[in-house]
Amino acid sequence: MRKPLSYIFILAVLSCSLFSFSSCSFVESEYRDGSNEQCFEALWRLMDEHYCFFDYKKQELGVDWDEVHARYSRQVNEDMNNAQLFEVLCNMIGELKDGHVNISSSFDYGRNWSFYEDYPLNYNDSIVNLYLGNDYQMASSLKYNILDDNIGYVRCESFADGIGSGNVNAMLYKLTICRGVIIDVRGNGGGMLSQAEMLASHFTDHRILIGYISHKTGKGRNQFSSPKAQYLEPTDGILWQKPVVVLTNRGCYSATNDFVKCMKLCPQVKVIGDKTGGGSGMPFNSELPNGWAVRYSAVVFYDADMRQTEFGIEPHFYVSMSGADTSRQKDTLIESAREYINSQYK
Fold first, then answer.
1. Tens digit of pLDDT for each residue in 144-183?
2. 37, 102, 159, 329: most buried by Cβ count inside 10 Å?
3. 346 band by pLDDT with thresholds 50, 70 and 90
4. Are 255 and 193 within 8 A, CB to CB?
């Protein structure tokens, strides 16, 4: 599992009492001594009974969870120290390539963030700051300003910072003079689904089917509830009906993936940039016998056509940062968004 320090994903985690999960702890009687082999077996079994993407990961990645057990169990013995055991466990769950699957110890945080590490960043913070300027306004964590062609630019770095509908109303009121608005969520690793969908609710004037949710109902790998429809309801506040462009890169994950899914269904919205990083499984927390914390995807979200979005959402228009633009201190994605919005008035 890769272990970089960038991008902190703060996720909304449901109570473990929901969806037939009776406890957040997996320290059952047969695993209480906390030996290396029992920690391994506890982790493998926890994932086997509660992880929600085995069929999809086998289809897309060829991951056979039984074969994974056979391969990694041979690497575990009681002579290993904590660091060695941690590495083996992290490598095992890293086979799933799921940014929501993590192990936390006092000395490290194991994760697989290849969904953005293996791709161009398509974002330059210094250049973005030139567009925001020094006089930008803030509505909670939303930073915004009006560009010189009368287009609003909004930088949304996280959905974990307490953004409320009142903040969005105040911001959109200030931007009503604009021809359109750019919402830049590049590098936004997620946060609260409720905040992401609340922001999206300001950009539709009608109810939209945005997808379906299904959760585990038993310990079998294919035991799920029937998919339940989810809808985006228009806000009671300000409804924005002018052109909108959402800027994305591979760092758009989890709740931000959901935000892009919702926004892409709004008729006046275009998504420009790269495919999002994905992360469509709701994470749950548990604990191994030795006290290490485990997080894993346990609830599946689909799009409106019942397709998986675990590995990301395609933009309407693929645009990458240009070296020539970067040398001129220009952001290719922002400039493409401005060109698109202005073209709607020709």
1. 999 999 999 999 999 999 899 999 999 999 999 999 999 9
2. 159
3. confident
4. yes
Non-local CB neighbours of 332 within 8 Å, separated by 6+ positions: 319, 320, 321, 322, 325, 326
Contact 141, 156 (CB under 8 A): yes
**Dihedral sign, Cα of residue 288, residue 293, residue 299, residue 305:** negative
The residue written with tokens 């994605």 in the block is 333
Per the CB < 8 A criterion, the answer to whether 294 and 103 are in contact is: yes
The Cα 253–Cα 249 span in angstroms is 9
List, in sequence order, every residue forming a beta bridge with 308; answer none if it has no partner. Answer: 302
* CA terminus-to-terminus distance, the chain: 50
